[in-house]
Structure prediction request, 611 residues.
Amino acid sequence: MLSTDLRSQWMSKLLERFTVFVPAERENQVHWHRLEPADLGSGTDTVTPALRRIRASEPVKSFMFNPRQQVGAFPEKLKPAEPKTRVLLGVKNCDLVPLKVHDKILTDGEFNDPFYLAQRKNTILVAADCPVPEESCFCNLLGLTPFAGDDADAALSVCDGAFLLEVGERGRELIDAAPDLFRKASEGDAGVTRREEERKAAVAALNRINPTPWNPGLPAAVAAKRKDESFWQKHAEKCVECFGCLMGCPTCYCFLLYDQAREKGLDRTRVWDACYLAAYARVGGGANPRAEFVKRFANRFFCKFSDFKTDHGMFACSGCGRCFKACMGKIDIRKVLGEL
Amino acid sequence: MNNPYAAIPATILKVMDETPNIRTFVLRPEREIPFLAGQFVELTVPGFGEAPFTPSSSHFKRDTFEMTIMKVGRATGALFGLKPGDAVGVRGPFGNPYPLEKFAGKDIYIVGGGVGLAPLRALFLALTHEIDKYKHIYLRYGARTPNDIVYRHLLPEWEKLPGVDIDLSVDVSDEKWMKKVGVVTCLLEEIPCDEKKSIAVVCGPPIMMKFVNQRLLDAGFQGENIYLSMETNMSCGVGQCRHCRLGPYLTCKDGPVLTWAQIKDIENPFA
Ligand code: SF4
Ligand code: SF4
Ligand code: SF4
Prediction:
């Protein structure tokens, strides 16, 4: 436990050892911000309030599964860089759980992405509770809580003038950076009691925002709609094909390798791709199994709510609501799936 | 740790014209690519991209290997501009080989169309290398015109092999053509093996695969004995990027050859 007054001292200690990213508010949205010593001087504390807000606009996957990442060179070899350890302070549960998707895909044991792994390993993930879920949030429908389980290296709760930090093995480094500032919390501490109250209230708020659970047989119900184009068409009609729903999604894992020629040889880059793009499934000869947009529109639902569950035992969605927030047509997954 | 996206250099040793738009490239990779018939490699044409191809030469000789490629897009277009001595990149092998152990003791009925004979050649060479393990090998191959037939110089040699039976057709003949005329299914009117027990292996353009598959089913072949080369868009080749998703499968990892029994419930598998 750390008093919020000591926040700046702790963070400057962290900066001596690590690169630190924190959520910060800009125009009422939360964005990831690289913490600089100057942020910790006098002036208003923007970090603490942002820690209590919902997830940042940018998905946390971008830190390890980068939007663009050089993954090869030719004819010479390319090795992943080993940068300074990073601390992501304030990761929400709906960003933590999606990392399991990327772990499954990019490090399946047979083929492992060394560039993803290097960045995954050099990141200390500090979760933060969501005391105030917003209308776009629906983690509860996915069976998730608005606070982390044991997927993070440490968990932070900000309540009643205190930072409550629970650490796992790796998270200890965060306390070791400034051991004198912390004291051990106990059951009776006001902060601890308050945290439990806030967690209960957040769960209740989510249940108010999203009162109706999904059909427990959802994967099969989604799959059963494979041939029902009219069902998808009525939602696809509102789509303007901006792909914001896929590009901001913390679970989407599709990528494309592309090469750029250099004077002697080439660089190979892994870039995010999206199944809503017409060229996504097109083959060299020009044939395309999803030439009509409605088929591509439906593919997102098959992928996230049927295929991934069947293959890996989890939905490829965490209910973060970014797709809904980004959508110009206000297409809401909750509404689409609620009809099934 | 191995980088699954990194290509190793390979030198083009020889380029052979098969048809006006199909060539066979003989490659010597810096390190041996330990492929088995049916597996594919990703071929990089420096500066123009990467595409998957199945080696067409025998897996019993791997210091060099061959790929027979049709010019269809950007990467293959650039490849056709390369000469012996030029460098390309290769990575693999990926995907599953033909399950030869399941083919042992059986008649093997191979049906190819156009450039689809390329991966089938690797299979054919693997089978004839150990011909005693199999009952009889039938090869049925169709091309658009006599000029579009690949491995023209090899087919007469193959016909002489014991335990092998070959028949050919073209959609449009010329005055010298002595064999059948018609789409490849015209070769399947009479099937000389026991359909219930035999193995069928098909590779060709999607529309050809669709009709051949139907004909084989009508003739009595079992869905689990019909092996089909599925063509999908691919990028990574290692089961990550999801481009090649086909129903419940990733063709790069679960394929590229799938049986009809595996894909029969997929909507429009030959789309
Ligand atoms: S979806 Fe849940 S975990 Fe994510 S920001 Fe909202 S409340 Fe927090
Ligand atoms: S297929 Fe579509 S929905 Fe699924 S991960 Fe890829 S981009 Fe996302
Ligand atoms: S599909 Fe939407 S709600 Fe689900 S994880 Fe992706 S962006 Fe978040």
Remarks:
- Chain B has a mean pLDDT of 94.
